[in-house]
Amino acid sequence: MTPSASRRATCAACLRARSACICGFAAPLASRVELLVLQHPLEVHHAKNSARLLHLSLPSSRLLVGEAFAAAELDAALNADGRRPLLLYPHTPGEAALGLPAPPPLDPAGLAQPEALRLVLLDATWRKSRKMLYLNPALQCLPRLALQELPPSAYRIRKAHAPDQLSSLEAAVHALSRLENRPEHYTSLLDGFDRFVEQQSRLFRA
Predict the structure, then answer these.
(1) Strand ranges for the chain from DSSP E
(2) Cα(164)–Cα(71) distance, rounded to whole angstroms?
(3) What is the CA radius of gyration of the chain?
(4) 133 in Cβ contact with 94 (< 8 Å)
(5) pTM
(6) Which residues have a Cβ under 8 Å from the Cβ of 14 and sit 6 or more positions away?
(7) Least confident among 82-86, 106-110, 135-139
(8) CA–CA separation, 88 and 13 (whole Å)
(9) For an engineered disulfide with 165, which of 50, 51, 160, 194 has Cβ 3.0 to 4.6 Å away?
(10) Taking the CA of residue 12 as centre, how many other CA atoms within 13 Å lie in the half-sphere pointing to its CB?
(11) Which of 112, 115, 120, 116 is nearest to 138 (CA)?
């Protein structure tokens, strides 16, 4: 294989060029809350996207790619094994004007058993995530978990409109840490993310 062909070869696990493989940054961890990532198709091959690293780091997680999912497929993914799905998404103004119903209230008592929860993460830009929510009524019916009092993001390779706008990986880590009440458990995942960010910074500087 020629050097140029080697650079173009793709890793089957992370879907990136072998020369930019991120599998070495993944530190597999067990999570009590199961993670379901719904990834917009435009994010799949985006070099700065962190959801693939997140998925590789949580072996029990599931990642589905799409914008408008078949109702039966999405229902099965949300409710598999009897877990209670919870959407990681903020309450935002203007949803009623879009015809979106108010989400059901989040029952704090339902958070007492992390092993019975499924955290649903929309991996997309803000605009695309709103469209995914609009196109999939089953997501509109989920109680929401909104993150608050967040630290600044380390995601310096992608533009954010506020310091606390996190990458998909960071948002998932903070949500899982709070739901499971064990923040130190996910330290290695954030360490891997820092290495991923540094790699991408070098590649974009090259």
Answers:
(1) 34-39, 62-65, 84-88, 117-123, 144-145
(2) 33
(3) 17
(4) no
(5) 0.86
(6) 21, 22, 23, 52, 53, 56
(7) 106-110
(8) 25
(9) 160
(10) 0
(11) 120
Of 133, 142, 112, 114, the residue nearest 69 (C-alpha): 133
Query: What residue has token string 């719904």?
Result: 38
Q: How many angstroms separate the CA atoms of 101 and 33, rounded? A: 26
Domain ranges of the chain: 25-91+113-205
Mention every residue, 6+ apart, whose C-beta is less than 8 A from residue 123: 37, 38, 39, 40, 43, 49, 51, 168
Residue 180 half-sphere exposure toward CB, CA atoms < 13 A: 21
Q: Which two tokens stand for residue 55?
A: 């998925």
Contact 169, 186 (CB under 8 A): no
* Of 13, 60, 19, 76, the residue nearest 172 (C-alpha): 60
Strand 117-123 and strand 84-88: pairing?
A: parallel
- CA 85 to centroid of chain Cα atoms: 14
CA 166 to chain CA mean position, Å: 10
Q: What's the confidence (pLDDT) of residue 155?
A: 47
**More reliable by pLDDT, 48 or 195:** 195
Question: What 3-state class would DSSP assign to 135?
Answer: helix
pLDDT in tens, 64-76: 999 999 999 999 9
**Is 36 strand, coil or helix?**
strand
For the record, the structure tokens of 144 come out as 């929401």
